[in-house]
Amino acid sequence: MFENIIGQTETIHALRGELAQGRFPRSSLFFGPAYAGKLSTALEAARVLTCAEGRGEWSCECASCRMQRELTHPQTVLLGPRYADVEIAASADALMRSRKPSTLYLLLRAVRKLTRRFDFWIADADDARVKGMQERVAQLEELVDGLSPGSELPPARELGELLERIVAAAAPVAAQVRSDTISIGQVRRLAAWAHLTAGGSRKIALIENADRMQDSARNALLKLLEEPPASVHLILLSTRRAAIIPTILSRLRPYSFPARTEGEEKDVMTKIFRRDAEGVIRGDAEGVIRGDAEGVIRGDAGHFPGLRGFFLAWREINPEKLSQLARRFMELARGANDPGVDIVEEMSELLPERKPQRGRSSRETLASFLEELMTHLGELLREGSASPESLERWSAAARDALARIESYNMQPAAVVEALFYRLREEGAG
Questions:
Q1: Is 11 exposed, middle or buried (0-12, 13-18, 19+ CB in 10 A)?
Q2: Residues 216, 87: one domain?
Q3: 221 and 327 housed in the same domain
Q4: Is 41 among the domain residues?
Q5: Last residue of a domain, one of 218, 240, 256
Q6: Domain residues for 387?
Q7: Which among 34, 166, 295, 338 has most CB atoms closer than 10 A?
Q8: Is residue 100 included in any domain, yes or no?
Q9: Are 247 and 370 part of one and the same domain?
Q10: What is the pLDDT along the chain (429 residues), one digit of tens a residue?
């Protein structure tokens, strides 16, 4: 079990032992930075828990494991916001590079990590946006229906055209999912689903970005955590453990997912997405799905500084420019003797509505910038350029700004300006 997980040796060892001994908790929290493998590990835990053979090897051919590999198992549900579009595009590219069962599974799973959030028994039926997406979700599922494991793939040109259609069809659905918060309607439907009998089968709910939850939804989830049905496992995932309220946190067994090492991240790029840190093509594909990040992804000319840089490039965001902007932002925020700075103009590259750029929204660009800013704050501490107390205040301000852009739909320019002046007030200068 967990043969498909790269890195996280200690956590995987603990999970293997608990699952083998039947001690895996009914409520747990997988927490750690982005790209650490939390969701992949949670999906593997779900597969092992539902395996009819009770062993959980990836190659198990029981009906349950087959459905879990393709993410079609009816007793596993997913909810919560997620950046799905770039994973689908990168997975489509990998399938064109390497026409193997592993890359086909990669694509199918990437698509269904998105579409399964619209399952009728879990989606908020009262949300007009959800109703408006149902037809698009059905179209997306119809496109991947012909790509079944064990079936022969279409010729390269035909496959490329199909993958382009899948990537295009996924974009509007992913745009809604990544900007959503978890609503009380979703949690209520989750609770109703959890209490339905499943003929003795285990049921697993995976709640991604669990910190992005409406207050009323938190209260509803707390009730479910206090009295979960015996056959149900709830796995919450978050990059911000501290943002989960204590009453929920106290009912979860935590599992830490530290950042992967540089070597492990390179393994993910080479073994899973078929690229290396310099973008070298792996496989014998006649074509690829390409991004267009000012040369960051162009055939074999890309350069990816780790997994985050890889996915930023697929989002058409240049990671090096993002780092430069984060450093410039902090330099200006700490420049108390320069009160006349127009920070919105200085950070105009973060605001594509001021300088329109194809393929990305200002909100996702700014969210990526805020993540980069928090990374830079950690570097200031390691360099001795900031005290731990200052770092905590600045990081809290950046986290609040990220919550505003992700959960409250605030205008990016207003978020940038408010964060800048808050940092100055918090003593960044």
A1: buried
A2: yes
A3: no
A4: yes
A5: 256
A6: 319-425
A7: 166
A8: yes
A9: no
A10: 898 899 999 999 999 999 999 999 999 999 998 899 999 999 999 999 999 988 788 889 999 999 999 999 999 999 998 888 889 999 999 999 889 999 999 999 999 999 999 988 888 767 777 777 888 999 999 999 889 888 889 999 999 999 999 999 998 888 878 767 788 989 999 999 998 865 667 999 999 999 888 889 999 999 999 888 888 999 999 988 888 999 999 999 999 999 999 899 999 988 999 876 544 434 333 333 443 333 333 333 345 678 888 888 787 777 788 888 888 888 888 875 666 778 888 888 776 544 444 445 667 778 788 888 888 887 887 787 777 777 778 878 887 887 777 666 677 888 888 888 888 887 655
Token pair, residue 175, equals 């745009």
Query: Hey, what amino acid is at 313?
Result: A
Looking at the domain assignment, is residue 265 inside a domain? no
E-strand ranges in 181-231 read 203-207
Interior angle at CA 76, CA 68 and CA 231, nearest 5: 120
Q: Which residue has the tokens 């382009």?
A: 164
How many angstroms separate the CA atoms of 248 and 220, rounded? 11
Q: What are the CB-based long-range contacts (under 8 Å, 24+) for 157-160? A: 157/286, 157/287, 159/95, 159/96, 159/99, 160/96, 160/286, 160/287, 160/289
pTM score, whole prediction: 0.83
Strand order in the sheet with 253-256: 76-79, 203-207, 232-238, 27-31, 253-256
Distance CA 227, CA 136 (A): 36
Closest CA to 311 of 376, 380, 239, 372: 372
d(CA 182, CA 194): 17
Tell me the DSSP string of 255-284.
EE-PPPPHHHHHHIIIIISS--TT----S-
Last residue of a domain, one of 256, 288, 308: 256
Query: 274 in a domain, yes or no?
Result: no
HSE-CB of 174 using CA atoms within 13 angstroms:
24
CB-based contact 325:301 (threshold 8 Å)? no
